[in-house]
Amino acid sequence: MITLNKIQQVLNDTRRESVEEMAQEAARVTRQNFGRTISLYAPLYLSNYCSSHCTYCGFHALNKIKRIKLTPDEMRREMVPIHAQGIRNILMLTGESYKHTPIEYLKDAVRTAGDFFQGIALEVHPMQAQEYKELFAAGVDGITVYQETYDRRRYADVHLSGYKKDYDFRYGTPQRAAEGGMRQIVLGILLGLSETAPDLLALYEHLRSMERSYPGVEYAVSFPRLRTIKEKEFVRCDVDDTTFIKIICLTRILFGRVGINLSTREAPQLRNNLLELGITRMSAGSNTSVGGYSLLDKDEQDPQFDIKDDRSVADVVALLKKRNFDPIFTDWRRIENCS
Amino acid sequence: MFNDMPLVIAGKTFNSRFLLGTGKFKNKSDLAESIVASGAEIVTVALRRVDLDRHEDNILKHIPKNITLLTNTSGARNAQEAVRIARLAKASGCGPWVKIEVINDSKYLLPDNQETVKATQILAAEGFVVLPYISPDLYTARALVKAGAATVMPLGSLIGSNQGLKTKELIQILINEIDLPIVVDAGIGAPSQAAEAMEMGAAAVLANTAIATAEQPAVLARAFALAVEAGRMAYLSGLPRQTSVANASSPLTGFLYDNAQ
Question: CA of A152 to nearest chain B CA: how many angstroms apart?
């Protein structure tokens, strides 16, 4: 049983030898469960329309950025270069807007993606179980939804308006996605937004309860670290690299078979070193702006967050091979989904 | 001195009784070398990992042509999904040999025996050569025989756990009672464990994680091949059973012969 005390103890223990000891154990568990393989995926931002006001996000409703929503033809133009780089797992994202990106829009995107990709996941506004069922039937296999923080008070402080203000509806999203038949569900917290230890404990409890209720789902977690967005600062509790590494290792030791994702928010050198410690999936060659792969020039783009690792897929693959990892492009072959 | 029958599965004969899985290898050359070193003639591949249009990294390119490809349905959570994956594999040119893997528990990765039987019925009727992966259970194995399975593949212990034959007694029952080749799959973490399964009378052994994650995979692959052969020879030799106490020659019935002297 993991407790708040235990997590705090781990995070406070900065002795070099205990960090190394954890890393060794995490590496061992990862190799046994996943071998030396790393799955690759790319994010594709479909729309930045958003009706929620989350103070830390570059897409929030009041932010004066150029709002764009890709048409199916534009999606296709964005998908071509991603596919050409070898990527077969796509994570399609939108801001949270039922009005601008309703389920029919998402289904169109999924159908379009079906021409290029084998694994299709969405990170969009939370929905009802019936809607997840429809999306699953349309070809979606995975849902990513972060609670951001499990601290209700802080949650209310940073989610000022819109659907996302409803903590409980968001908390129930993984459950509804599982009810809808999804194969993969990714949970996460936005590190830095709130106190780390209680958030981590609540995430672990959420994950455990999902594992018990929906054992057939493949779970993964993600630990995006809050970054500045075009120079604005929202960080409450800074998570340094050592703490970040301990979080990854602790998660791996507690959840041997759960995937751990790492995005291009992190710098190349840290990403390289984290490969050994528990990471199983990485995004590569990412662009976090709507239209960023082929439609807009760099100076026209408004990213959701600034990426720190802008290496191409080919560069990441070369690095993985050099470090004795097998890059996995295909981890699923699409079959007709029906529940 | 050592005459063995070849392993026969669905009418096809194999000289090797070792099957190799292809997951978790750090690169394709380790995999290719391990296949050769193991002498395996049947190799399993997860369809979910096959990308037909990526030439350089297409796993199928690293498997020699003379090897029988056994596509597994990894990722299937029920019979329907396993059937769809098997059909897709066949349509993609992977052939009709399929290892049914239906797993609806991502933590323990234990197979769902009931759904496995259902998938076996459907696919065997469609002409697939079906090698179902199960938790060792006599009733399931009997149902699989009826369903038209080509082998029964009971797990030794949890996938990837290297724990060996935790289910030994249940596997022994299958070996004794089921008239299909019993291929021990999953959890076999060392050559000694593979030898032990063969000594019990298993028809063959499948391993993957132990070899794929070894520092020198091809060396361990060879060690597994030798262990499987040694275990098989021991089984055919009429290996004396183990006992827990010393055995005097005839302490209980010796008196019968005392009078005759």
Answer: 29
Query: Which CATH number covers residue A22?
Result: 3.20.20.70
Q: Which of B51, B56, B220 to mutate to test the interface with A (most CBs of A within 10 A)?
A: B51
Phi, psi of B198 (to 5 degrees): -70, -35
Q: What architecture is domain B7-242?
A: Alpha-Beta Barrel (3.20)
Locate B226 and state its tokens: 């030798």
Domain that holds residue A96: 4-326
As averages over each run of 10 residues, the pLDDT of chain A (339 residues) reads 90 90 94 91 90 76 81 93 92 90 95 94 96 96 96 90 89 97 96 93 97 96 78 70 93 95 84 88 84 77 72 88 90 76
State the sign of the Cα–Cα–Cα–Cα dihedral B146, B152, B157, B159. Answer: negative
- B109 and chain A in contact, CB less than 8 A: yes
ipTM: 0.80
Is A338 domain-assigned?
Answer: no
Q: Which residues of B touch A339 (CB under 8 A)?
A: none
Residues of B forming the active site: 99
Q: Alpha-carbon distance A132 to B54, whole Å? A: 31
Does any domain span residue A336? no
What pTM did the predictor assign? 0.88
